């Protein structure tokens, strides 16, 4: 019997497996795909904090960025530059492989091209190249992605929203210091241009509807040739409960991507750390019923930021093109740009929002877009 079974071999699952093995627990990591890191379902832009959480080398890093350009459909632009690295553009396949190897080096057993099915607390069945097998265990940590079969089988509910994303790597010359964000490309989220280098970029968008049509219109701004696209899903809004008997749900499977950006690495790995810490305490006390502590830990860590992010996401869906143009002009004031650079945090936007909400000259803007009412009680 394994102490820990981790389902899902992305950065979140690999971290959970590595930490479990390092804690001296017998650990099995199960990944359904034959090749680690494929298919790619991520924009590959990690904040500095998210990249640090990976505890990986910089071998997977293509580029670093220090700022962003937010460009409206009318051509108005908000540009800010921190002058230091704020995010990393990475090869997700290479990063995933390195993190999986770290889990194996720590002592975790790894099985790829293996499908897991949750049967009951303490038992999953797997289907791999050698056939079907029952895997008894003390605790399961599920990091099996946005459409988690483990969470669904355990009856842990659904996410509030499920976004669809499309992206393509194309030849495109741009300033490699800046990510571009285009709110007009996807009215309920945004489009992006992420520089891989000065000559190539990842162009994509996310949204709740008509994503294919939106992407086709957006990509034509940058290339007329056919492109190879990558697609993925982003769940927003945590499950109603992220634990059950002998089971904890982490990362995208739990609905932890940030609603303001769609990124899930930072919160996902933080959740993996909390899950392993909870598992270690439960197993040391021989009491697997203590897993409710996991939910307390992640909520104390980033639960408030997720709640704030969800309200901002819902507010974004109500903003008009005029609202965005006015916001860009208002936020382009030099003293406000300085606050954005000083307080901006891709993973924890609450502090910046609080600073901006204290500006009398922005009250008209916030009233126009309904931010004051939406965020009441969260800031």
TrEMBL record:
Domain FAD-binding: 2-198
Top-rank taxon, per record: Archaea
Any one GO molecular function term: oxidoreductase activity, acting on the CH-CH group of donors, NAD or NADP as acceptor
InterPro entries: FAD-bd, FAD/NAD-bd_sf, Geranylgeranyl_Rdtase_fam, Geranylgeranyl_reductase
PANTHER family cross-referenced by the UniProt entry: DIGERANYLGERANYLGLYCEROPHOSPHOLIPID REDUCTASE, GERANYLGERANYL DIPHOSPHATE REDUCTASE
Protein name: Geranylgeranyl reductase
Protein's organism: Methanocalculus chunghsingensis
Taxon lineage: Archaea, Methanobacteriati, Methanobacteriota, Stenosarchaea group, Methanomicrobia
